[in-house]
Write a structure and sequence with these properties.
By secondary structure, the protein is an alpha/beta fold. It has two domains: about 170 residues, Glycogen Phosphorylase B (Rossmann fold), CATH 3.40.50; about 160 residues, Glycogen Phosphorylase B (Rossmann fold). It contains 14 helices and 13 strands. The strands form two sheets. Strands 3-2-1-4-5-6-7 form a seven-stranded parallel sheet, sandwiched between helices. It has a six-stranded parallel sheet with strand order 10-9-8-11-12-13, sandwiched between helices. Helix 10 links the parallel strand 11 and strand 12. The longest helix is centred in the C-terminal third of the chain and has 16 residues.
């Protein structure tokens, strides 16, 4: 079966990073997959896909030239002649569905996020009668999209995170060390790194805490504004930049934080758990179901710097306990999202698609 996997862009985010694992399941069932991107953006996911042997075709355009993007996709599909169109993210889904209707090609659509623009939600609802199968990247997105898009019978979850049992385990904190806190993510408003900066500002002169430092690995449009905030407040925060090897970054930490306004699966937070890190997070996406509050981390309210600061202070203040919390964190995520569960869920999805 020839599958056109259509995605908005090839920045390195939660929708792009799991593609090799997803494609491996499709290939094992006889799928021949090519990825088509409607825009490049920073293109940081391209080496990841190429290293996995996945063919990639990228349109050189913007994220707003929808007519040009539709024409490009229409022409690419005419050349590629797919048996199935598989889309990821709203723009790719809407344009992919239009092309699929024209070609009478069956479609599978991912829904990744627990929030949609009103216009996109309206347009996606129009796609319901024509879609072979809708996929949620987590159980939390099932709940959201069932309400917002009215999806039910042809909507299933395939958690897109595959926890690796061979992932490195973070080195435990030792007496006299700085407590190393980290976060992985694009520097954009969704991640609420401004709130995280405010929380760190509340803690930086705390008399009862050991020395600590936060590193945020990523890049994006808010880099300059966040750096200015950090410089002005003399905050113990660094931006090491985008990393193509997130596990290498995570294993250097003692504690992970995810301050997001919303998420779907939240791959980064679950990667941190796989590396044996306790996680402090907002109730965004799937993380509240994965984190056992008080045992593997903390859940704090959205947009609440004092609450985030209090949770961080509690864990930073007893750094010798972090490794044990991280060990429980790793065990939990491997049980929920290990390789066997990932493949089992993927095959259950493919069983519902005619031709697989």
């Amino acid at each position: 079966m020839k599958i056109a996997y259509i995605i908005n862009s090839l920045e390195c985010g939660g929708a792009q990073l799991p593609i090799p694992d997803i494609v491996s399941v499709l290939k094992a069932r006889g799928g021949d997959v090519t990825v088509f991107a409607l825009a490049r953006k920073d293109g940081l996911a391209i080496p990841l896909l190429e290293a996995a042997g996945i063919p990639v075709r990228v349109r050189e355009g913007t994220t707003r030239d929808h007519i040009a993007a539709y024409r490009w996709l229409r022409d690419e599909m005419e050349t590629f002649q797919p048996d199935l169109i598989w889309t990821s993210l709203s723009r790719a889904t809407l344009l992919g569905q239009l092309v699929a209707l024209r070609r009478k090609t069956p479609t599978v659509h991912w829904q990744h996020c627990g929030r949609l623009k009103k216009a996109n939600a309206f347009l996606l609802r129009l796609c319901r009668p024509y879609t072979t199968l809708w996929l949620a990247d987590s159980q939390s997105v099932i709940t959201f999209a069932a309400k917002e898009l009215g999806l039910s019978d042809n909507f299933v979850a395939w958690p897109i995170f595959r926890a690796d049992p061979d992932a490195p385990i973070a080195t435990p904190w030792k007496e006299g060390e700085i407590v190393r806190i980290g976060s992985l993510g694009r520097l954009n408003p969704v991640k609420a790194y401004d709130i995280l900066c405010d929380a760190v500002a509340l803690l930086k002169d705390h008399p009862d805490l050991p020395p600590f430092r936060l590193q945020i690995a990523g890049d994006g449009p808010l880099h300059a504004a966040l750096q200015a905030r950090i410089t002005a407040g003399n905050l113990p925060i660094d931006f090491p930049g985008y990393t193509s090897k997130p596990m290498d970054f995570l294993e250097t930490l003692h504690l992970y934080v995810q301050s997001s306004h919303w998420e779907g699966m939240c791959v980064a937070g679950h990667e941190a758990m796989t590396c044996g890190l306790p996680v402090v997070a907002t109730p965004a996406g799937e993380l509240p179901s994965s984190i056992l509050d008080g045992e593997t981390g903390r859940i704090v309210p959205f947009d609440n710097a004092p609450a985030l600061a209090a949770a961080l202070a509690d864990l930073i203040g007893r750094p010798a306990d972090l490794a044990a919390m991280g060990e429980r964190s790793r065990k939990r995520v491997l049980e929920r999202f290990g390789p066997e569960a990932f493949t089992r869920n993927g095959n259950a999805v493919l069983d519902r698609i005619p031709g697989f």
